[in-house]
Specification:
Blueprint lengths: L4 H4 L2 E3 L3 H19 L7 E8 H4 L6 H9 L9 H14 L1 E4 L3 E4 L2 H4 E4 L9 E8 L5 E11 L2 E4 H5 L17 H11 L3 H13 L1 H24 L14 H13 L8 H17 L3 E3 L9 H12 L8 H18 L4 H4 L5 H15 L4 H13 L17 H20 L9 H14 L12 H4 L4
Parallel strand pairs: 2-5
Antiparallel strand pairs: 1-9, 2-6, 3-4, 6-7, 7-8
Helix pairs in contact: 2-4, 9-10, 9-14, 10-12, 11-12, 12-13, 12-18, 13-16, 13-18, 14-16, 16-17, 16-18, 17-18, 17-19
């Protein structure tokens, strides 16, 4: 199995990788399908199902779908141009699409939130349709946004296309047990094996430059969040807190008044800064999702800014190790909150971060596997219950606590020799089973938990 670090970590926009980035990517794919068709099209329609319907407005799924059909992509998203485009579509009831001309589209009637008809392949389902001059549907495609910005058609999902079909890689581990066996046999650590796989597919320059770009975007996102205050959009009137906390931490440091446990506040504020930016629709990196995008940057920033002897030369190893662990979780369970609850998002992010931190702090492959297991184990059963369908409460603080757990898990693993009772593979399988058993109310539908118990929302 091979999942590139640049598939696991993608530069995109908030507030959700599955609900914002995914629908935009699906729309782009549908436009390509239309361009390749011999038919002439006059209009477009879309229907959102399952979690995409229930929390679609709060996650900006409607905006993302419309903008995707208008030709926008997460990688090149221009916020100012997007607002102008949305206003034009609202007024003209039409889209101007490159290579397809003018297409009828009334956001009020041609974008349907279907709460009654879940699609069978995944909780995040959407149907995109193209119509002729008479309004009859002449092209239709079902897409599933399966988490982390990954999108599959109905046919791809049915055929099991969520697997790698490229050329063989040197270390094709599909489980943590295989990963450890290959590490022992080769004498390489996890990052070295993952690097060999990446280079065999895409070359050293792509890996080096791409890794720099990922960390730059992550770190820039932290810095923007630490410098910005105000109220987050969406109607909950949630106040940005990262700037105020960061300012206080800097002041306390200057007065030499910090208590030892204040280090937890540093980890939290880095993560909260990212997730406040995400909630505001800013640029983030899926790690492995937008909803969990703060855990990894916070853990890496903690390492670079607070751990003696840390070096930016280890950033690539951090990303490679995290991607290796994330690939195991995605391949054997899920990274989608709509499929398995927040254990699949913040839990996965914490496991990836814990293993990566353990690795760059000198941990053996066995200790890295142990760190990832500890972090994931203590997120098992965590529900996804965003208040008002917004990626704000409890999501922002939850990323901070996820970073704290990741660092604690890495530290505990480094205190041992790598031997432990519960293998990472067993923990991943337990997470999968827990997700299957979890009520739909707690899987990103905002139909249970905090979403229905917080007043005035």
């Amino acid at each position: 199995m091979f999942l590139s670090v640049f598939e696991m970590f993608k530069v995109g926009i908030g507030p959700s990788s599955s609900h914002t980035m995914g629908p935009m990517v699906a729309a782009a794919r549908f436009l390509e399908m239309m361009r390749a068709s011999p038919f002439h099209f006059a209009g477009l329609r879309a229907s959102l199902h399952g979690s995409l319907a229930f929390t679609g407005v709060g996650h900006a799924t409607d905006r993302a779908t419309i903008l995707g059909l208008a030709g926008f992509t997460p990688e090149s998203y221009d916020a100012i141009k997007a607002e102008e485009t949305l206003k034009g579509i609202e007024e003209a009831h039409a889209l101007e699409v490159e290579g397809l001309g003018t297409l009828r589209f009334n956001p009020k009637t041609d974008l349907i939130f279907d709460y009654e008809t879940p699609l069978t392949g995944h909780a995040n389902g959407m149907t995109l349709m193209a119509t002729d001059a008479q309004g009859d549907i002449t092209l239709r495609q079902v897409y599933y946004s399966i988490g982390g910005g990954f999108v599959m058609t109905e046919e791809e999902l049915s055929a099991g296309k969520d697997t790698d079909e490229g050329a063989p890689v040197p270390y094709p581990f599909k489980s943590a047990a295989e990963m450890l066996e290959m590490a022992k046999a080769s004498g390489k650590n996890i990052a070295q094996m993952k690097r060999a796989n990446e280079v065999s597919r895409n070359g050293e320059v792509h890996l080096r430059e791409g890794s720099k770009r990922l960390w730059q975007v992550m770190n820039d996102c932290i810095n923007r969040g630490l410098e910005t205050d105000g109220i987050l959009p969406g109607g909950l009137n949630v106040k940005r807190r990262a700037k105020g906390i960061h300012d206080a931490l800097i002041a306390e440091r200057g007065m030499n008044q910090s208590a030892p446990h204040t280090i937890n506040d540093w980890m939290s504020v880095y993560a909260m800064a990212v997730n406040e930016e995400n909630a505001a629709g800013g640029q983030v990196v899926t790690a492995p999702t937008n909803g969990a995008a703060g855990v990894m940057p916070a853990t890496l920033r903690y390492y670079l800014d607070h751990v003696p002897g840390a070096s930016e030369s280890h950033v690539e190893d951090f990303l490679l190790t995290a991607a290796a662990i994330g690939g195991l979780v995605k391949f054997n369970a899920s990274i989608s909150g709509a499929e398995a609850g927040c254990q699949a998002e913040v839990g996965s992010a914490a496991a990836m971060s814990a293993g990566a931190l353990c690795a760059v702090m000198g941990g053996t492959p066995e200790q890295v596997e142990n760190a990832a297991e500890i972090a994931l184990e203590h997120h098992l059963g965590m529900t996804c219950d965003p208040v008002k369908g917004l990626v704000q409460v409890p999501c922002i603080e939850r990323n901070g606590l996820g970073a704290i757990k990741a660092v604690s898990a890495a530290s505990l693993a480094l205190r041992g020799d790598g031997t432990h009772l519960v293998p990472l593979d067993a923990c991943i399988e337990t997470m999968r089973q827990t997700g299957v058993d979890m009520s739909e109310k707690y899987k990103e539908t905002s139909l249970g938990g905090l979403a229905v118990n917080v007043p005035n929302c």
